[in-house]
Amino acid sequence: MTLNASHPLLDGRTADSPLITAYRGGKPERRPVWFMRQAGRSLPEYREARKGIAMLDACLTPDLAAEITLQPVRRHDVDAGIFFSDIVIPLKLAGVDVDIVPGVGPVLGAPVRTAADVARLPKLTEEALEPVREAVKLTVAELGKKPLIGFAGAPFTLAAYMVEGRPSRDHLGPRTMMHADPQTWNALAAWAADASGMFMRAQLEAGASAAQLFDSWAGSLGLADYRRHVAPASARALDHVRGLGAPLVHFGTGTSELLVAMRDVGVDVIGVDYRLPLDEANRRLGGTTPLQGNIDPALLAAPWEVLEAHVREVIAAGAAAPGHVLNLGHGVPPEADPDVLTRVVKLIHSVEP
User: Fold this and answer.
1) Which pLDDT score is estimated for 2?
2) Which positions in this protein are listed as binding substrate (predicted)?
3) Domain range holding 213?
């Protein structure tokens, strides 16, 4: 399993970029930064492009998805694009009845709670992923030497949505299932792992230079449950892309106690949320793993001198890690001022690596 010789990682476009250099533990020519949810509601041009178009429709319209991915790169001069899509797109493309309800989030037509429910799940096909590949190709053609980051939702987070049928605060359904009916849980997690892995692989093969696995809800788990009931499925998802040679990032919110286990599923970089200082994350990981993060998004609305001091603290805390990519410790809030984000990027780029 290898990338095509014309892939940006192999043809000289992105292999030496600041982002990929830092992801691989090297010293980049400038400090790399990008923002989770940088392509989204904080940008007026995004709101204009999305006007009257449903979220999943926007994700599956290749030229629109490409344009939305490129918007924050043009505006902020960030060091990478993050592919505009949604973690439930692989479910949608497989034929699962799912939609994004404004103000709610992903909602399934019927939850998946029994062995029979899992057995009825349709399989994702390579053909169904063609709109994803097309959008990635369009984006990469415009990005030039800046890398595109692909992504997918981790199996636990996908399965949590499927069991609950909608967003949940405590994720009791999946946490109960993994103990009460481990066979059904394992079958569902395996289905989600393959959907997630195929989604990531389609993006990487089409031109993305790295990929990030988002485990949005893993913070609801204790370490023992994560290792036993979740890590094997995350490793299975990553098996789909492990041999491609692209850097792989793993991020979850509220996962400070899981960082070592999250690395050990087989990734190169760990994303750290805003709750844990990067020097402590580096210590827990043994000083061997490049880090990504972890500016507190709440401080984007603070006075500039407060935000600037915080950004400099994050840079200093990440200095001991073998590589550091600046990011937020969560996604860009919808109400964030785009000009503040641009100013943060300029500040980060002004600090010698």
Assistant:
1) 87
2) 37-41, 86, 161, 216, 330
3) 18-350
| In contact, 293 and 272? CB cutoff 8 Å | yes
Catalytic residue among 23, 31, 86, 274: 86
Residue-wise pLDDT tens digits, 295-345: 999 999 999 999 999 999 999 999 999 999 999 999 999 999 999 999 999
Mapping DSSP to helix (H, G, I), strand (E, B) and coil, where does residue 271 land? strand
63 known member of a binding site = no
CB atoms within 10 A of CB 142: 15
Whether 3 is covered by a domain: the verdict is no
- Annotation marks residue 16 as catalytic: no
Please give the pLDDT value at position 246: 99
3-state DSSP helix/strand/coil % of the chain, to nearest 5: 50, 10, 40
> Tokens representing 174?
């999946």
Predicted pLDDT of residue 169 = 86
From the candidates 75, 79, 113, 161, which is the catalytic residue?
Answer: 161
Count of domains in the chain? 1
Residue 210: CATH number of its domain: 3.20.20.210
284 is catalytic: no
Catalytic residue, chosen from 13, 23, 31, 37, is 37
With contact defined as beta carbons under 8 Å apart, do 314 and 283 qualify? Answer: no
Note if 86 is an active site residue: yes
Q: Note whether residue 6 is domain-resident.
A: no
Q: Which pLDDT tens digit goes with each residue over 44-102?
A: 999 999 999 999 999 999 999 999 999 999 999 999 999 999 999 999 999 999 999 99
Residue entry with tokens 């792989």: 248
- 295 vs 331: CA distance, rounded Å: 10
